[in-house]
Amino acid sequence: MNGPGAWIRGLVWGVVASLMGATLSSTLPALDRQITCRGHNYAHAPVIITHSSVTLAEVYSTPTETVIPGRTTQGSQVRDANHPDLPSAYVLRGEAICRNHSSQAVEAVGLTIVTFDAFHQPLHSLAGLDVPVIKQVVVRIPKGAETRIEWEQPIASNEIYEVAVVVTRVRFADGGVWLAPSEELIDVF
């Protein structure tokens, strides 16, 4: 064992063992990437977006919960090594900082989520629908105040390159409702 090639064999076995250990102990990371996000504000909107961010995440099924594309489920961002055949789905996770510029308190906000591909073409099939998705968020925003709104939207594919978030509906504490102008949303981008 102690010949001239012993140290080479030891080196080779050390490299092989470290590579095997790395292979056996590594996990497949779930997709989790920041997406370019732009907030759009209509003129005279009672609530405006001052900052927004979006992350595209891959969510794996767990043995007790199957992820179904287009449906909201908790899932896991770690693939179960004992069940590698369980499906995964994609989800957009967003955050918007919204400021109430109106003279009264707000009790709900409607955020319209518009997705685009790398060539700035709209992707309307977030959840298999042909229209942009409107997320209703029930949140109290006192007049003049700012609050953080978090939202999540299951999506059909990971081909999203950028996202636009727009406040298109506002419900006030007195029951009044503001609706954005009925122009084509894609035209404002």
Q: Please write the string of helix (H) and strand (E) elements.
A: HEEEEEEEEE
- Tally of separate helices: 1
Question: What is the CATH third-level topology name of the domain at 28-57 and 90-188?
Answer: Immunoglobulin-like
Rg value: 24 Å
Shape: elongated
Q: Span between N and C termini?
A: 72 Å
**What number is the mean pLDDT?**
76
Unreliable stretches (pLDDT < 50, length at least 5) are 21-29, 67-72, 76-83
CATH architecture classification name of the domain at 28-57 and 90-188:
Sandwich
Helix share of residues? Answer: 10-25%
Broad structural category:
mainly beta
CATH C-level of the domain at 28-57 and 90-188: Mainly Beta
Biggest sheet descriptor? 9 strands, mixed
Strand fraction equals 35-45%
Number of strands: 9
Explain this structure.
Strand 1 (32-40) and strand 2 form a beta hairpin. Strands 1, 2, 3, 4, 5, 6, 7, 8 and 9 form a nine-stranded mixed sheet that branches. The protein has one helix and nine strands, in the order H-E-E-E-E-E-E-E-E-E. Mean pLDDT is 76; it is low at 21-29, 67-72 and 76-83. 11% of the residues lie in helices and 43% in strands. The protein has a domain at 28-57 and 90-188: Immunoglobulin-like (Sandwich), CATH 2.60.40. The chain is mainly β and 189 residues long.
